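Problem 12. The chain below contains 235 residues. Write out its predicted structure in token notation.
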Amino acid sequence: MSDSVHNPVWTSCKDAAGIAGNIFAFGLFVSPIPTYRRIIRNRSTEQFSGLPYIYALMNCLICMWYGMPLISADNLLVVTVNSFGTVFQLAYIILFIIYAERKIKVSMLASLLVVLVLFAIIVVGSLQIHDQMIRWITVGSLTVVSLISMFASPLFIINLVIQTKSVEFMPFYLSLSTFLMSTSFLLYGVLNFDAFIYVPNGIGTILGIIQLMLYLHYKKKSVQESKEPLIVSHA
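Solution.
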């Protein structure tokens, strides 16, 4: 294992997978921009929910902390991707609070405060663990739970697609970006011998494949139905 880690080719492959994961994650981070253009244009959050951005912020903060040298070794690319993610999610949350109704503003501010307090507790609590291995396992376990929760969130959309037989609520590029990012970090985790990275991203890859298969199946079906004549002639 140690020989592989210090092998230049092995290291290059690992870094390439991590960089690819950062690039594909950027696609995920910018995906809400059209929604926020609409919010800013209408000066209202309408029926949109701000909770996904709260959950995403919590996930980015925990994963960023896990990638720090104080917790795990050689995970700089995990820090970079989640640092960018944290900035994007904070920007989305601030904009959401600005344009939300007063009741929702209060709720979002309270949720943001809870996330920041929880993250502070995780940071301070983990630093109280002097054994490096136990600290790594503790924060790593929280990372796995956080990532699996994030990747499991599309299960509702998958169920909706099956029920409605429509991909209207499952954007293709969002599903593709999720799959590519998960696959990249799956490889990164495997090449870095880090189960806390490759296990949740392996689950994310499987869920991404399911989403893409459903998209292709129901998209093809809807195209075929649209080609059928609206009026059947019996002449």
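Discussion. The longest helix spans residues 195-227. Students who got a different answer should revisit the alignment rule from Section 12.3.
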